[in-house]
Amino acid sequence: MSDIDRLIQVAEKLLQRIDAALPAPPPPTDWSAIAFRWRVRQGDGRGWLEAVRHPHAIRLDDLQGIDDQKRRLEQNTRQFVTGRSANNVLLTGARGTGKSSLVKAALNRFAAKGLRLIEVDKGDLVHLPEIVDLVAGRKERFVIFCDDLSFEAGEPGYKAMKSILDGSVSGMPDNLLVYATSNRRHLMPEKMAENLETVHTADGEIHPGETTEEKVSLSERFGLWLSFYPFDQDHYLAICEHWLQVFGLDQKSALAARQDALLWSLSRGARSGRVAWQFARDYAGKAKGKPSPRLASRGRGSARASQGDIDGPSPRPPSRGRG
Fold first, then answer.
1. Is the pLDDT of residue 29 over 80?
2. Do residue 129 and residue 247 come from a single domain?
3. Going by C-beta distance under 8 Å and a sequence separation of 6 or more, which residues neighbour residue 92?
4. Cys-Cys crosslink for 84: which of 51, 79, 149, 208, Cβ 3.0 to 4.6 Å?
5. Which 3 state secondary structure label does DSSP give 116?
6. pLDDT for residue 185
């Protein structure tokens, strides 16, 4: 064996050792799925789209009492999947009123028309530019879904979200929107001390301080705001009745459960679609109600979606402003 052959052999062994020490490449994206989660590998920080094998299959018809919110989100999403202009959407309001479920129901309504959902955790928002590069140019229409979004001062995801919505020199591709839910209208905590920054001019004008302006600047980048409000008793009972029938009880049995439904809400200290769904599961199970064929065929979502996002939201009171 010549010196050159021995050198090549040593080099090959060295490359093999280096290759073994390097992290494996991210798995390929399964583009046949309709829903994805952005995953980040510990160590090298590389991310990839993980297909969701069993997306939450809630329907728009299962969401009771939010007709206006459903209509507006459905119209915006229909515009998007048909290639027309559409807005990023911020859904805010009381907990358990159907914000997350409405987004997932819209996915099920329009998945056959090419809509795809990418769920991104708040801590991974710094990877938004990577996600944009990954989906840009594909024929599908993607919605980045950020659930229960809120920020504290100085979090890196805040700047990343502002930049991707409206502020980056690159801009968003035509096949991408952002839908976010939050219990906070402006996505950040508001403190009493910020009122001291307000400037009052001699002629009575009021100018908010810079801290307030900074907090409002992110929520204003969402073109469509949808507001959700707490339930009254009648809407709570109507949603309980709906879910009891979904879980296999007849209408008479569902109506007979009203008193139990009220006691359940008192024990939980809340009336919401989430509480109504949890009551229906408990009551129907004790009554040996079998799931209806429709429910059985809808599959299951993630544990978090199954327990926390099957909501029957309330309507907006007429006296309130639009979201």
1. yes
2. no
3. 99, 181, 182, 183, 184, 185, 225, 226, 227, 228, 323
4. 79
5. strand
6. 66
CATH number at residue 42: 3.40.50.300
pLDDT at 80 > cutoff 90: yes
Domain that holds residue 78: 35-190+201-228
Residue 119: inside a domain, yes or no?
yes
* H-run or E-run covering 38: strand 35-40
Q: Tokens 């159907």, residue?
A: 98
Mean pLDDT throughout 224-242? 90
The token pair that represents 15 in the structure block:
């490359």
d(CA 51, CA 64): 29
The per-residue pLDDT for range 273-308, each reduced to its tens digit, is: 889 989 999 999 988 645 544 444 343 333 333 333
Of 211, 206, 203, 288, nearest in space to 244 by CA? 288
- The secondary structure of the chain in percent helix, strand, coil, rounded to multiples of 5, reads 45, 15, 40
Q: Are residues 50 and 178 in the same domain?
A: yes
Distance CA 246, CA 72 (A): 26
Residue 22: inside a domain, yes or no?
no
Statement to judge: residues 167 and 295 lie in one domain = no
Return the residue matching tokens 């229906």: 280
* Domain count for the chain: 2
pLDDT (0 to 100) of residue 305: 36
Q: What is the DSSP letter of 248?
A: T
User: pLDDT by residue (tens digit) across 30-60?
Assistant: 999 999 999 987 766 788 899 999 888 889 9
